[in-house]
């Protein structure tokens, strides 16, 4: 991050410190959300660039004491429409959500997201078609033969990708297929275990047939830098491209924690995938921090968080193949983080009342000041 930006983040964080924070409230009254259309992240994006968020719903939200955020929280929808020009389905296009029973597709919420995006001039990232997690029990415990499983996956991809043909900018076709050692998940991924690694190439081919224009991605976490896992993707994609498999993109999720350092080599890593002829994207950014339940982050934590967000975005903006930067939710009250990591939290860019954290301003500054040849 540029020194000026660090100074800005620290100053904003300091200005937001204790005097404004009610000790009884977990949502301090900070700078309110902007009123005018121009006062928004999407108003600052360079040409051809997308700033996105996951759309809250399904998954962990179903166990929380609030109604479905996307369909019932109007202030949330207003911010979603105003700030972003790209949206991702957080859970609403995953197998366990879309396919509650064999032969049954629950398309309503995903349709609503796609329609909302169209009304608000936003693109959509589809997430996800082949994953080891969030698969319904009828599928994983159904005792299907290999031939049946292959047909189930092919039908799913044809049906889902086909339904949204022409409406999805990027599909996360295959999600998290390697572990952190760069070993293919050939046990916990039902598709790879039962059908062999070749099923991954089939998934890309079926997706291309169903929507020739959607860009088809591999997506994973802990692949921001050059490491065993991103090396495994690099080798696999090289191999698939040589076989003519339609892979268009490689994306890194970007779930970061202040407990760990900022991942090194981000731009070098993105660039090597670009040299293979791929697009790249950052798809699920959040930056969590140590936080006791009900506690408020310190100004230092907020400044550090802003710096991490900004460095991720700057990394993407500085690599011409990286055209899309998505955060995994924009408001703390709906974040998956405290549900999965009970001693961490405050991972998003807005307080519960949608007022803006230093991280919001850091992202906006980066978009505004982007000397990346895109404007
Ligand atoms: O499946 C069980 C169900 O059997 C059980 O009855 C229910 C009761 O708690 O829990 C169900 O699992 C939930 C699952 O969503 C269902 O869809 C989990 O508790 C819940 O934590 C889970 O949350 C989602 C998570 O993916 C699942 O891995 C989050 O909402 C979602 O934000 C998160 O998103 C993922 C991306 O898709 C991929 N990258 C990582 C990212 C963060 O984990």
TrEMBL record:
Keywords: Carbohydrate metabolism, Glycosidase, Hydrolase, Polysaccharide degradation, Signal, Xylan degradation. Residues 71-366 form the GH10 domain. It comes from the Bacteria. It is an enzyme of class 3 (hydrolase). The keyword Hydrolase applies. Residues 1-26 form the signal peptide. It catalyses: Endohydrolysis of (1->4)-beta-D-xylosidic linkages in xylans. Its EC number is 3.2.1.8. Belongs to the glycosyl hydrolase 10 (cellulase F) family. This is Beta-xylanase. It comes from Actinokineospora guangxiensis. The lineage of its organism: Bacteria, Bacillati, Actinomycetota, Actinomycetes, Pseudonocardiales.
């Amino acid at each position: 991050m540029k020194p000026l930006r660090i100074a800005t983040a620290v100053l904003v964080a300091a200005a937001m410190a204790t005097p404004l924070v009610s000790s009884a409230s977990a949502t301090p009254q900070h700078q309110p959300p902007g009123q005018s259309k121009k006062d928004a992240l999407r108003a600052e994006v360079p040409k051809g660039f997308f700033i996105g968020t996951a759309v809250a719903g399904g998954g962990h939200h179903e166990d929380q004491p609030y109604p479905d955020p996307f369909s019932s929280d109007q202030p949330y929808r207003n911010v979603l429409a105003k700030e972003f020009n790209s949206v991702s389905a957080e859970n609403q296009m995953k197998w366990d959500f879309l396919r509650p029973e064999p032969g049954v597709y629950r398309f309503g919420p995903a349709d609503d997201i796609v329609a909302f995006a169209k009304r608000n001039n936003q693109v959509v990232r589809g997430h996800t078609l082949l994953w080891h997690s969030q698969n319904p029990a009828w599928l994983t415990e159904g005792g299907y033969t290999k031939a049946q499983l292959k047909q189930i996956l092919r039908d799913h991809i044809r049906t889902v990708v086909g339904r949204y043909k022409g409406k999805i900018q990027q599909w996360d076709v295959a999600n998290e297929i390697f572990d952190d050692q760069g070993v293919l998940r050939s046990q916990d991924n039902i598709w790879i275990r039962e059908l062999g690694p070749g099923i991954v190439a089939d998934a890309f081919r079926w997706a291309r047939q169903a929507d020739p224009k959607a860009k088809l991605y591999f997506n994973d976490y802990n692949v921001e830098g050059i490491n065993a896992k991103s090396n495994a993707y690099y080798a696999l994609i090289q191999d698939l491209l040589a076989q003519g498999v339609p892979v268009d993109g490689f994306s890194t999720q970007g779930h970061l924690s202040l407990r760990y350092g900022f991942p090194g080599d981000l731009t070098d890593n993105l660039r090597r995938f670009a040299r293979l002829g791929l697009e790249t994207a950052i798809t699920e950014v959040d930056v969590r921090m140590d936080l006791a339940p009900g506690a408020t982050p310190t100004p230092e934590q907020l400044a550090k968080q802003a710096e991490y967000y900004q460095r991720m975005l700057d990394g993407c903006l500085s690599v011409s193949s990286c055209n899309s930067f998505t955060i995994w939710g924009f408001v703390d009250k709906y974040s998956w983080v405290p549900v999965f990591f009970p001693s961490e939290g405050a991972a998003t860019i807005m307080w519960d009342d949608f007022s803006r954290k230093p991280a919001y301003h850091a992202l906006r500054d980066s978009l505004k000041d982007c000397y990346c040849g895109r404007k």
